[in-house]
Design goal:
Layout: E1 5-8, E2 11-14, E3 16-18, E4 21-28, E5 51-53, H1 67-73, E6 88-94, E7 101-107, H2 125-131, E8 134-138, H3 143-147, H4 161-176, E9 182-192, H5 194-202, E10 214-218, H6 227-241, H7 250-253, H8 256-268, H9 292-297, E11 305-311, H10 328-339, H11 344-347, H12 354-377, E12 383-388, H13 407-410, H14 426-445, E13 464-468, E14 473-476, H15 480-486
Parallel strand pairs: 2-5, 7-8, 7-9, 9-10, 10-11, 11-12, 12-13
Antiparallel strand pairs: 1-2, 3-4, 4-6, 6-8, 13-14
Keywords: Disulfide bond, Hydrolase
GO molecular function: cholinesterase activity
Family: Belongs to the type-B carboxylesterase/lipase family.
Amino acid sequence: METTQIRTQYGEVQGVRENGAVIWRGIPYAEPPVGDLRFHMPRPPQPWEGVREATRFGPVCPQPGNELENSMFGPSNARPVQSEDCLYLNIWASDKSTEKRPVMVWIHGGAFVTGAGSLPIYDGTSLAVNGDMIVVTINYRLGPLGFLDLSSYGNAYAANLGLLDQIAALEWVRSNIAAFGGDPEKVTIFGESAGAMSIGALLAMPSAKGLFRAAIMQSGASQVLPPEAAKRIADSYLQELGGSPDDLSVLQSASTAELLQAADRLRQSGQGNTLSLLFQPVIHPQTLPVEPVVAIENGAAKDIALIIGTNQDEGSLFINQSSPIMSREQISGALEMMTGLNGDHLVDQYPMTVQGQAQIMTDLFFWRSAVRYAQAQINHGPVWMYRFDWSQPGHPWLGTATHAAEIAFVFNNLPLLRHIGIQPDELTTNLAVQMQKAWITFAHTTTPATMEIPWGDYKKHDRTTIIFDRQINLVEDPDHDKRVQLIGD
């Protein structure tokens, strides 16, 4: 790439060269959703005069503190600024050529209440350089600002604002990424946890059609609230904020801190089980009219190539030795709230221990949802299934293949693991190389099979699944008996 100064349709941006990549940070993809635009749909950014310095990340969406992210992903140079003015994206481009290259757009996780595209673990340098492509990470509105459904209070309010932010970012990419060397016809979206659940919804949303050709869902699938539950949460939230359905003025007059404090009080009040998501996508006629997995079964993502998978021990991040053992009634209620399943008969098949309850979450919230989503898509587009099994025995966090453990491997940012006391061995380093190569190959060709890994697609007759560990293996229909019991044959 000859220049780091690029003209977008809104103005020029100046990036920097670092470690074989050209990087632009903190580019606005929408007008700041502040003032009268709070709780409203995103709008295109205002054009600017002159050259905008794109060398620093933009503010992150207001969110509660999360010490786990800091330790898990390595320290940032500085604690990021939080602001409702948070709709920014970041671009990494390989400096190797000027040809139109595939684009990967990362949607971060964080239970729809935390996270940002600027976290160190999401640094796109390795992906962009090794894959000779463009990597984009985005921020979107979180918690009540992005996922409080106010639509029952009138047409002035839209639902699923955080998802609409993601669509606005993808529209910006489609209109502008060619100037950065990217091919707008070769966009792959990928994300983890709430990011993967967002992708599960985007695949079902009519307004997201044509914005990407492939998707990768890591540890997340179809996850939505029914409208009735969303309205109960909105009513309770408004009450915590000091307003009422007859007086919504507090939604504009409250400070950012007051919005977050009301959300925290609502969580602590027991409005939802401690494992449930108060703020998440909701079924809504204008934005997400059908539950995602049902829409996918009906062909909503026809011809979209999909990689989907989970980690072997997802639940160990959320339920561990410091967690209280829940009663049979509590865990059954949590299951019903998270999955819609009647949990009574399922709970009895797991030991009432911390490990047993973590396994319940792994199996029913993550793994079952991923398999159902894969099954829904295989008649409409190619699907590849994976399971991530790598762990570091004896490590306090990565001693199991826990939730989010695969992210460092996909981005091949293993040096960050030293911040939590891990020096990767040769097999671990090779796993990151091979896993990243599969993601890169998928972005280029819409198939993840490489010379090293002949990864076959997921079909109902064999259910081929790749197991990512220090040794990489292809397995047919892993956990067959469990799958038949939880999903059917």
